[in-house]
Amino acid sequence: MSLVLGIANTSHDSSAALFRDGRLVAAISEERLSRIKCDGGAIPERAIDGVLKEAGATRRDVTAIGLIYADFPEEYFIRPNALKELERKLSRLRRRLVGGGENRMVWANHVLKEAMAAGVPMEQCFRRELFLEREGFDKGARIAFFDHHDIHAHLAAFYSGFGDCAVITMDGEGDLEECHTSSVFRGGRHQRCHVTTGVANSAGHFYMAITQLLGFRPLRHEGKVLGLAAFGDPRPLYEAFSKALRLSPEGTRLVSDFRGDDERFDYLKRAIQGFSREQVAAAAQQVLEDTVVPLARNLVRETGLARVALNGGVFANVKLNQRIAALPEVEKIFVFPGMSDTGNSVGAALMMQDALEPGFLARGQHRLRDVYWGPEATDDEIEEELKLQNLPYEKLSEEQIIERAAQAIAKGDVVGWFQGRMEFGPRALGNRSMVGRPTDADINKTLNDRLERTEFMPFAPSALVEYADELFVGVDKAAHPAEFMTVTFDVKPEWHARIPAVVHVDGTARPQLVRQDTNPRYWKLIERYRQLSGIPVVLNTSFNVHEEPIVCGPEEGIRALAEDRIDRLAIGNYWVQGTRP
């Protein structure tokens, strides 16, 4: 048996993933277990043990480990620069003399740059034996580092099911200051066509700067900028923002007028003075779309590949993804659901699997079925927690649970829907969801108040896939990514007034298209609600309050009911009525 572990330990998105005998069996973000939003900056110990638990294995059973150039304890590296290595040794000696203290962290990307400058292989800089010993792995386990954007690209292409395709990766910053790659994927291998380097040219850093300047938290609240953009006019600031991000003259890279990220940030700070936050958000979104969409068009024309796989944090922007899908030159798009760096644990394991088994990427490429890769609570665990919370409950059949929940939703209740294995990635996809009826126009405010979320943020619909074309425009090009809520569609006009709770002010929605074969219990819930209401859609929002990770275990879901965040709770086979009439 082979167990291939992938670790992503970035500053804001740590996770672990596990392949067993060439099949992905588990992937978990550290934040879901630590309960610290965007937990990162260290090796994700909880997530590593969590995925191994799902496989019934231990760290000693791991046969290979894929790593990214991210945050590690400094002791795991020998610096190729003699002065840096001396500094490291003196620092460790100083800490020992004064009684220990936390081990200092180092970004492996810096070591990579030093190794390249010194002409030294990176493998010689990593203290493999020490890493394996300290982290509890078998000393015979193989280890390899993989490039950040290569991981993004292989993930998107592998799980797209497209076969040969064009691939675009785009984020804040990867290794060696790369922030964008355009490539082709053929026969299980990808070849880069174009690369953008330099953080002053980064689309991700541009959008992060706008997020911060609007008073939101970068790397966390970019979605709020997208939601706000629909309320504003982009024209007053469009020209000014185009100096901070635009397409290169040949149409293949990103450029700006600035030499560094700080210089660009200061410029944007001055540029937005006197403008409303809606105008700022709208201009930022328009500039992003007008930069990236033609880049995608040019890649398709250059390569002749009309199917496009997308990955990296910039493609968390669902409106941008809609614009790319709408290009006449594009046949279909796919967006890997864990598009931020959290997905790179899956990618590191995937690339390690291919290194062990050459040709695996070509042979194994397939259409992603689901991302229910996390832990699942047993009936005993759920009942134990319900007893601890001293809540009255009933154990019901699946048919009874669905009937109770559908009736409650139709009545106007918000139901916590906690079922099966937890989703991987940023979206709640019907296993850790809060579900309500989409017909209440006022629910946007009332539910956001209960969850302490920003009022202008729209909620999303979960819709039966069988009715997708009846509800939305242009589904065919992006039906697959819509199963994971990674793209918006225009809602057909006749549905605007029928499902106002899930239609944004610009007439779009970010649906989850629910298939019976991938989530049968959730599909049955929506179908039963359709029978009661005539509407094949429920409102779906993530099961969490503002600034908390999505719930993982029963205790968090049950606490939400106790705190009056939800009205009823369907948790596994248990129905909890709550105290509301």
Give me the secondary-structure topology:
Layout (H helix, E strand, L loop, with lengths): L2 E7 L4 E7 L2 E7 H5 L10 H10 L9 E5 L2 E3 L8 H16 L7 E3 H11 L9 H8 L6 E5 L1 H13 L4 E6 L7 E9 L2 E9 L5 H11 L8 H8 L5 H8 L3 E2 L6 E2 L5 H11 L5 H27 L3 E5 L6 H8 L6 E4 L8 H13 L3 H5 L14 H10 L5 E2 L2 H14 L3 E4 L13 E5 L6 H9 L8 E5 L3 H4 L7 H4 L6 E2 L2 H4 L11 E2 L2 E3 L5 H14 L3 E6 L11 H9 L5 E4 L2 E3 L5
Helix pairs in contact: 6-13, 7-10, 7-11, 8-11, 9-11, 11-12, 16-21
In short, what is this structure?
This protein has 581 residues and is of the alpha/beta class. Helix content is 38%, strand content 19%. A hairpin with a 4-residue loop joins strand 1 (3-9) and strand 2 (14-20).
Characteristic key phrases:
single chain, 581 residues, alpha/beta, Nucleotidyltransferase, domain 5, DHBP synthase, eight-stranded mixed sheet, 22 helices, 24 strands, globular
